[in-house]
Design brief:
With 279 residues, this protein is α/β, with parallel strands linked by helices. It folds into two domains: 8-44 and 75-122 and 234-264, Major capsid protein gp5 fold, CATH 3.30.2400.20; 129-231 and 267-276, hypothetical protein PF0899 domain (hypothetical protein PF0899 fold, 2-Layer Sandwich). The chain contains six helices and twelve strands. A six-stranded mixed sheet has the order 5-12-9-6-8-7. The protein has a four-stranded mixed sheet with strand order 1-10-11-4. It has a two-stranded antiparallel ribbon with strand order 2-3. Helix 1 (7-27) runs parallel beside helix 3.
């Protein structure tokens, strides 16, 4: 026998699709590296986390016998994972006639779709941050708003450093005013990281990023937060599986991308939402 059409003949194409998809997903992920990430389980069970009741400090004398205080955990929230996916079908005819275009386009788009899905879900949590709200619907964000949000988080004992993620147009308004724009420092470490292309600069212990996955509008909601304000709990990382379908369209390959994760606010008082137009 000779001239068999085997998986081996497809392996270079498939590997390139997977590599391109993973690279695109990484390059398009703004929020994932900035929040509290869990990747210690591949189970689909709900994660429950707890917070402890706090004690008090008393003045004591040499004769004082300190009374014991309760240190009891109580459930503070849950993260429930779900599976997300997308599917492309590349026919043999398309692969044979346009292999490099099909490979690059399919790989890049599968990665982009999942990255945008994750990012949009995380930025959608900004309105659930309960540390405070600054700005107004229809207005433009100011540096006074920025510093007030930082003060809110500090008042709530949110650990530094802080991250501020804004819609690109919100960032434009913030940095294009005629005066009172502070000198933004540039971190070479952040610029060289996976989120470097979204980095705008740093000021006052705050690292600024732009994210076009924030929903646009006259009342767009950006966020400033300490890492523990938001959680991303990955149970099964982004992956692509290949499946042969010989009966469809004369034969072809299904590219099935999936990812299982949970997301939610983790310490909501450690973050503020920043409201301002992105129009």
């Amino acid at each position: 026998m000779a001239n068999e059409s085997t998986y081996t003949s497809m392996s270079a194409l498939v590997n390139s699709i997977i590599d391109t998809a993973l690279l695109t997903a990484s390059e398009q992920s703004v929020m994932a590296p900035l929040v509290r990430s869990f990747n210690d389980s591949n189970s689909s069970t709900t994660r429950i986390w707890a917070q402890y009741t706090g004690g008090t400090i008393a003045t004591i004398t040499e004769a004082t016998d300190l009374a014991m205080q309760a240190f009891t955990p109580a459930a503070a929230g849950t993260l429930t994972p779900a599976v997300y996916g997308s599917n492309y079908f590349l026919t043999d005819r398309r692969i044979n006639s346009d292999p490099f275009g099909a490979r690059a386009d399919a790989g890049a788009d599968l990665g982009r779709l999942m990255a945008v899905n994750v990012d949009s879900k995380l930025t959608g949590l900004f309105s659930s941050l309960s540390g405070g709200t600054v700005g107004t619907a229809g207005g433009t964000l100011t540096w006074a708003n920025i510093m007030r949000a930082s003060a809110y988080i500090k008042t709530n004992y949110g650990p530094a450093p802080y991250v501020c993620v804004l819609h690109p147009v919100q960032w434009y308004y913030l940095t294009s005013v005629a005066s009172s724009v502070p000198t933004l420092m540039q971190s070479e470490k952040i610029k060289d990281s996976v989120v470097g292309s979204f980095y705008g600069g740093s000021f006052g212990g705050i690292d600024f990023f732009v994210d076009a996955n924030i929903t646009s509008g006259t009342a767009a909601v950006g966020g400033m937060f300490s890492r523990d304000a938001i959680a991303l709990d990955v149970r099964q990382p982004f992956k692509i599986e290949l499946q042969r379908d010989a009966s469809r369209g004369g034969g072809g390959w299904e590219l099935i991308s999936t990812m299982e994760f949970a997301y939610g606010v983790y310490r909501p008082t450690f973050g503020c939402n920043l409201v301002g137009t992105s129009s």
